[in-house]
Amino acid sequence: MAAPGIKDVATRAGVSVGTVSNVLNRPDVVTERTRRKVLDAIASLGFVRNESARQLRNGHSRTLAYIVLDPANPFFTDVARGAEDAARGAGLALYLCNSEEDAAREAEYLDILLEQRVRGVLITPVASGSDRLRAMPELGVPVVLVDRAAGDPSAWCSVAVDDVEGGDLAVTHLLELGHTRIGFVGGPDSIVQVTDRRRGALRALNRAGVDPEALVVLGTAALTLAEGRQAGQRVVGMPARRRPTAVFCANDLLAIGFLQQMIQHGVDVPGEMAIVGYDDIEFAAAAAVPLSSVRQPRYELGRRACELLLAEADAWAARGDAAAHVHQQVEFTPELVVRTSSGRPPVRPGRPVSS
Question: Which end of the chain has fewer CB atoms < 10 Å from its terminal CB, N or C?
């Protein structure tokens, strides 16, 4: 049986199709008595408006999308929650798509979202310079980069965290504890956040007069628990004279995996090995040894990015011109949260250390 349509509602209520349309879209121009007749007909028939068709007619979608880089990382769950709350506050729905760090998969989603005429796209891109991503605004779909600074500020809005500063905070903390043999666990280098956090680590070593070549880089294929455990296994297998006494991991999943490997091999944390992660996900404080971590404002990243996307989409809708919107680049400052996994250094002015 076919779903009831707007003509069925009009027949049941004894009014024209145009009157039903007014009740649905401009109820203020319809008398209370007529409006009630139409609403009663809608209720009795179980009529549901074809929202997709309506959106295609007026060119205004009520859906946004967020293409997430790594759905297994709780960091992105918190970012998505902030974006969803901002979208719901504006009466819109937010679709989540998972690229899983696969450029081809990301491109497929962009094509689908363009076909669906979504109102805008939030994305933590695999590579921010992709041609398909750059084409989205030109084809009428605004884009905001999330947790990724815009290489070209004139191309789109972005919301990010100063990851170089974050890496600096982590390694400065370890240096203040007296560590000079420090490892960096992270990869692949195609992820900008990884390279920025390592740059911050090198900056801290330079400032402290420690040879940057002393940084033991333990590259990983992904930012996962399993890769963290493998990095831990490699460290345990190193000769004692080369083994770092502290590591800075590019995210908390790596750090927790690394910590698990230290515990399995009986390495005392932080006595024999200090560990600092990045993101400060909920699991960091709940780890077997509570994890020191560089905190990012995860929820606020998503919320602010969605607000920028809504502002851009509204500007386009009002003027029909992308040039009507001025792109903004928002950058948050990270904060070091010190817990048991690293120990506590003397607090020095200018280095934000919190419990």
Answer: N
Q: What confidence tens digit (pLDDT) does each residue in 170-196 have?
A: 999 999 999 999 999 999 988 889 999
Closest CA to 277 of 305, 300, 303, 296: 296
Overall average pLDDT of the 284-292 stretch: 95
CA-closest candidate to residue 64, choices 323, 313, 304, 298? 313
Residue 286 has pLDDT above 50, yes or no: yes
Residues 247-283: tens digit of each pLDDT: 999 999 999 999 999 999 999 999 999 999 999 999 9
> Among 30-44, 48-62, 240-254, 281-295, whose mean pLDDT is lowest?
48-62
